[in-house]
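Run: sequence + EPU -> complex structure.
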Amino acid sequence: MQRLEIEGKHILEGEVRISGAKNSAVALIPASVLSDGIVTISNVPNITDRDALNEILEYLNADVKIEDETMVIDSTNIENKEIPESISKKLRASYYFMGALLGKYKKVNMYFPGGCKIGARPINLHLKGFEALGAIVTERENQYIIEADELIGNNIYLDIASVGATINIMLAAVKAKGTTIIENAAKEPEVVNVAMFLNNMGARIIGAGTSEIKIIGVSKLEGCSHEVIPDRIEAGTYMIAASLMGNNVKISNVIPEHLDALLLKLKEIGIKIEVGNDYFIISKSDNMKSVNIKTLPYPGFPTDLQQPITTLLTQCEGSSKVEETIYENRFLNVDYLNKMGSNIKTKDKEAIVYGVTPLKGCEVIATDLRAGACLVLAALIAEGKTTIHNIDHILRGYEGIVEKLNGLGAKIKIV
Ligand code: EPU
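>> structure
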């Protein structure tokens, strides 16, 4: 099993370029099967989640070429067969094949997706959406067979503004007859990126990025070229790293507006940030003040940065309250942070972080992707060496994390 070894207390300097967004790419890749032509997706991050989706595409007989960060996908000869559990469970986003294959072939047969164990994460809203479009869902243990004679547009209200359900329903509805309206839709930039991709193919989606999305069904989707947006969560992780150990670290290839919630919190903490058109320059600050964080759907504070920012809060004077409202189980990082020397108490969906606490390197485990990021950040400021186990989680979502951090002056290696 691979592990990360990190020697702490090295100043970070220089520039880091942010990759394409994982949570956008993992929807764009399955969405490509809807096209009747060839699609080219650029700025795809080189992460293991990309490889897992590629495995599904190739299993379905799509012709895929990957060169650097560009994927060229030809789905003309796809065979719409059952997707086995061994590949569907490698990641959560395999569920986007449900909407995409249903939308194209009116039938999909696959097993329940995998992903980080950060809560129950049901997919009831995805399935309700498919049913509203006229599909029949048959569930056998963790296998789903979803089929329809015809998909017909409908009005769908989401009880929760779910990113996954919003995207999956868009995928299923683009070729449906008539108009679909998703109310209380998720507004995340990744939803917009997917809608733009589908519109580039010839779909008619209006309102992505607002809470009401209108999808006017079309009969044919062409090939197209499309670019993955920069990863706001990867950017946020490096912004926090620079706030902890940086000396004028430049974080480039970002869309600053996507990070407004984090920017406001960093400023409240006392970090000085230069905001450029597509970059930030950040240095560490000596007097950081505690702040309260409450995770919310976009444009609120992203749950995916809740664990990473907790590391920064351990270095802020006073007590900070962290409230997690999206997932039930996203404090698994806390035990390991406390093992490193922090003083964090959790109760239900709240954590109180008492600062300032010096951290010391030790052996820790990445229980999920962002918990792993939180521990990498902790290791950067810890005295001595930290060994992080279970790093497959981290490699699923952060492109070249070792090279990028070493490029900034950190001492980190995969063993
Ligand atoms: N939910 C339901 N029923 C559903 C769908 C969602 O109850 O049918 C609940 C979930 O259990 C959760 C909440 O709604 O409590 C929000 O879930 P959402 O569907 O928005 O999340 P997701 O689509 O499963 C994506 C990202 C997550 C990110 C969330 C929120 C992907 C592959 N995953 O998940 O990313 O936290 O949106 O922004 O896009 C990560 O990158 O570390 C990660 C977990």
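>> summary
Residues 233 and 305 are 7 Å apart (CA to CA). The pocket of EPU is lined by residues 23, 26, 92-93, 116, 119-126, 160, 162-165, 186, 188, 303-304, 326-327, 369-370, 397 (CB under 6 Å).
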